[in-house]
Amino acid sequence: MDIDLLTNIFYAMVRTGTPLLLVALGELVCEKSGVLNLGQEGMMLFGAVIGFIVAFSSGSLWLGVLCACLAGVLLSLLFAFVALGLSSNQVATGLALTIFGVGLSSFIGAAWVGKPLAGFEPVAIPLLSEIPLLGRMLFGQDLLVYLSFALFALVAWVILKSRAGLIIQAVGENPNAASAMGLPVLRVRTLAVMFGGAMAGLAGGYMSLAYTPMWAENMTAGRGWIALALVVFASWRVFRVVLGAWLFGLASILHLVAQGIGLAIPGNLLAMLPYVATIVVLVVLSRDAIKTRLYAPVSLGQPWKAGH
């Protein structure tokens, strides 16, 4: 395997892993606050279709990105109202949100399927992009990939170094104690859910404006579900999220790698690998449920009301 092929593999790995990274970072913050939102797939698709329509109609890719984020926030507020405001079951509410988002995106985007769009192009950083192997992977990407790097750094700093991160984790570990200390539990959780929605919408916008600049029904292909598993796989640790996202991205392009090196393996079989890897990861983690619970936020998925 020559160096050019490896460079292309690493480059594609980061591009393919970017939507997973964005969604997983949003879900990580959400779960750190004690909220389990399974509606990531629906928010991604809604963000993808709204971002595409706005960008196609206005001619502004960045306006499309902004509207994709706002679309994700809009659906996340629907989840927050039902799951947090009405204290409904978070799993059932998240599943309903995904079903709603998938159907709504298909309905809204029916007239936009297959329309061409000039999406974000790679922007190589001089000198740095010429570093062997890692140059194109890290410094030859489009602007939304660079944005994902910045958002990763921001989330890592907030969770690990800031007072806001301590508040989020306090609310996620023991909302009763946090409330007794004067922390606005529902407000913190709502803001965390909104951030998760914005990240899911951004990931959807990346799919329709950069990765494959077009709109197609169900174009996220289960990435929202993979991102949910990725947060568990990363044991709710922010630095493991980026590595996991890129590993899942690599698994997603193995069928292209096999074709590139001439392996006689059916492409459809290799295309199944990301989903098989997700199942394997969850099975392995479930074998050590005690260790998994040690890392998970204590109040994850549990409804909470003030005064209870």
From TrEMBL:
It is found in: Cell inner membrane. InterPro entries: ABC_transp_permease (IPR001851). It holds the Pfam family BPD_transp_2. It comes from the Bacteria. The chain crosses the membrane at residues 6-26, 38-56, 62-84, 91-113, 143-160, 191-209, 221-239, 246-265, 271-290. This is Nucleoside ABC transporter membrane protein. The keyword Translocase does not apply.
